[in-house]
Design goal:
- The protein is α+β, with helices and mostly antiparallel strands.
- It folds into two domains: 13-145, Tetratricopeptide repeat domain (Serine Threonine Protein Phosphatase 5, Tetratricopeptide repeat, Alpha Horseshoe), CATH 1.25.40; 189-385, B-lactam Antibiotic, Isopenicillin N Synthase, Chain (Jelly Rolls, Sandwich).
- The protein contains 13 helices and twelve strands.
- The chain has helices spanning 13-28, 32-45, 53-62, 66-79, 84-96, 100-117, 125-149, 156-165, 198-203, 205-217, 259-264, 266-272, 370-385, and strands at residues 189-190, 224-225, 246-253, 256-257, 287-292, 297-301, 308-316, 321-325, 328-330, 338-340, 346-350, 356-364.
- Strands 1, 2, 3, 4, 5, 7, 10 and 12 form an eight-stranded antiparallel β-sheet that branches. It has a four-stranded antiparallel β-sheet with strand order 6-11-8-9, with no helix packed on it.
- A hairpin with a 2-residue loop joins strand 3 (246-253) and strand 4.
- The longest helix has 25 residues, at 125-149.
- It is elongated.
- 29% of the residues are buried.
Amino acid sequence: MASPSPIPLRVTEAEARQATERALAALRGGDAASAATILREMEDRAGSGPFPWAALANAEIMLGNHDAAAAVVDRRLAAAPRDIGALLQRGWLHEQAGSARAAVSFYQAARNQAAASGVAPPAIARLLDHAARYCATASEAFAGRLAEATSGPLSDRMVEALGLLKGEREIDLQRPNVFYYPGLPQRRFYEPADFPWLVPMLALLPAMQDEWARISAEGAAGFAPYVETPPDRPAPNNPLLGSERWTALHFWRSGEVAADNARRCPATMEALTHAPMPRIAGRSPNAHWSRLLPGAHITPHHGMLNTRLICHIPIKTAPGCSLRVGSETRSWEPGIPLIFDDSMEHEARNDGPEERVVLLFEIWRPEVPEEDRTALGAIFEAIGDSGL
């Protein structure tokens, strides 16, 4: 076969196009050597204009020159770091070199870019599929190695850390929608053992359940939709606005006792005296029975503050009910309180056939010192006095 004609030092656009066509024809004919010679000379002499880098990289690969192909792709990525084809080809070259971690890194970058752009050229669809399969296989192998390395007992923190490492969980952060107090630990749930005052409170649980049974037998009189339109405010954008699927029977509301309900439920009111509820004029305490009917879904949201925790004392548990806080989901179990930071994204569901009822109230977050609690109370009272 005749050797290809050399490309002049300075080529016109038409001459560059013709050289590219000759190189591509040589590639299609299986003559990688001729294609590579044409394209190498073209890269050297054609200047900074568009260049068929993928064709040259493929020619070098067909010739077994993986290092040369990698150099071509690296030059392309230096000019266009998010080029999907170049990322895929670099991943493939790392895969062939046995560098699994590097291959996954480039493959995943290509997949992320394809997802972000919403469309990938059909010519690279097959390599994208290969990248997805390779990443999945590598992830399974990685998880297997981690399982072998951590076969002994692990603390809860290590279990969570491994979940984050494997991409099974996310880092959950406080994002209150009104007031953020800095420096608090990012902790979704607290354990009942952290709060000694729960012991006398739970001693009253049977009496509280008797009060619920009596009120339930009366048709749950006094319960009202939890999500309401407040006076002089726009209606909240909440699918449970005015819904009977999520209702409340209030005992304390914005710092005021709901006298009628308090008289009906003396054991519940006594139980609440044990809890360190904030006392801020016009704001708190807040405490109520929260009733969630079958099919109800409290959609993901964030609470107002991160200086408080929300406590649930299970009055009536039911199957198929769950509370998700961040990346952790728990259910209500008889006699076991749930205490959580509602400034993290959270949601609740009742996917079962029965109603679920809890005593819900807020407490000071234990890490907030007394002097700051006093200051916070003054701040929120001032906000209330200003009419905000």
